[in-house]
Write a structure and sequence with these properties.
The protein is of the alpha/beta class. 29% of the residues lie in helices and 27% in strands. α3 packs across α4 and α3 crosses α9. Bound molecules: NADP nicotinamide-adenine-dinucleotide phosphate (NAP).
């Protein structure tokens, strides 16, 4: 079977490699992958910017497919069942934070960019029936991250003014759709006017171009402060978010695409009684609640482009350039 592995000795850092079919243990299942999807994590791995990298590991945290083999102790799933995979492994029992054994599927363990995936059966869930294979594969990692940031950490409430930054991103489009489903008044930022238009077509009230220097003044005059801000960029743009947060507001950041801020508007944080919180993926409870929300509101991931495995370098390059609107999908 084919898999896309990290190989940092090659110019594209990726290699399509042939494997013998993997053996399964009693508590595992084998899934024939129909679609897999990229997360920025995969691109960080390719760039060598992720801890504990190993060449030869199959990348990919997101996937959906059909169960083709069941371990002898697996009773809650069946052969031929259409499923998706929760890539958050060993979270533990503490809802507030993951345990020390927490891992993400797709590095250092073999991931979803393969024709077959072997995974513990407790990571496997029925595919929501309103989703295509491409949509189902796009949901798990980004949907879970968005759900926890917005609902668990952010405690979003109906009617609140919510800003989601970088709408073109995989997590951001879910945070936006989940906030709309929770009846918030939702705004986005993006570098692209067409992505802002896409957000409006989903029900977002308005959007701001974060590359325009005065976007914070514009947002403050138009909206008057956001109750909750969901961000994956951090860097010095965190200070912009502090400017547009309403007094008593919350900022939840789940990523730092721009790195660490070189300075911080500390006075504004304490004077305005702001809460700044971090969030990473999510617990098993978060995952189940996220799936419920997606099923109840028939939420569909925004898809960018679908690539074949042989076009993996092209697909990763698209993510590196930030050109995507939504999830980039790869098919065996
Ligand atoms: N902690 C976790 O569990 C977790 C989980 C998932 C992701 N992450 C991290 O979160 C970040 C986003 O991940 P992703 O998979 O959603 O990535 P992605 O799909 O590659 O999204 C990147 C998006 O970031 C936006 N962006 C770039 N510069 C920005 C800025 N200055 N201000 C606001 N937005 C900006 C762009 O939005 P526009 O195109 O609209 O301009 C771009 O499309 C990454 O750093 C990733 O490693 C963390």
């Amino acid at each position: 079977m084919k898999g896309i592995v990290l190989n940092r000795s090659l110019s594209g850092q990726l290699e399509e490699r042939e494997f013998d079919s993997f053996l399964i243990e009693d508590n595992q299942v084998k899934i024939k992958i129909k679609s897999a999807a990229l997360n920025h994590r995969d691109e960080w791995c390719r760039q060598g910017l992720y801890p504990n990298l190993k060449d030869g590991v199959i990348l990919g945290s997101d996937g959906a497919g059909v169960i083709v083999e069941l371990g002898s102790k697996v009773t809650h799933l069946s052969l031929g069942q259409e499923v998706l995979v929760n890539p958050a492994m060993n979270w533990g029992n503490n809802q507030r934070v993951q345990g020390k054994d927490f891992q993400i599927l797709g590095m250092p363990s073999n991931g979803t960019l393969a024709e077959e995936l072997v995974v513990n059966a407790d990571r496997v869930f029925p595919k929501p029936s309103h989703l295509t294979w491409e949509e189902a594969a796009s949901l798990p990692l980004a949907g879970l991250t968005a759900y926890r940031a917005l609902c668990y950490q952010g405690e979003v409430k109906a009617g609140e003014k919510v800003l989601v930054t970088g709408f073109g991103g995989g997590v951001a489009q879910f945070a936006t759709q989940f906030a709309l489903a929770r009846d918030a008044d939702v705004y986005v930022t993006s570098s692209s006017p067409s992505k802002i238009e896409k957000a409006k077509s989903l029900g977002v009230t308005s959007g701001f171009n974060y590359r325009v220097a005065e976007w914070t003044e514009l947002a403050n005059s138009k909206v008057g402060g956001f109750d909750l801000i969901i961000d994956g960029a951090a860097g010095n743009s965190l200070n912009d978010l502090i400017q547009v947060a309403a007094p008593g507001g919350r900022i939840v950041f789940y990523g730092a695409t721009l790195g660490n801020p070189s300075h911080l508007e500390a006075r504004k944080i304490f004077w305005n009684q702001l809460k700044i919180m971090g969030s990473t993926m999510g617990s098993d409870r978060d995952f189940n609640q996220m799936l419920d929300l997606v099923r109840t509101h028939k939420i569909k991931p925004v898809l960018d482009q679908v690539f074949s495995f042989s076009q993996a370098v092209e697909a990763f390059d698209r993510m590196k350039a930030g050109a995507q609107m939504g999830k980039i999908v790869l098919k065996p």
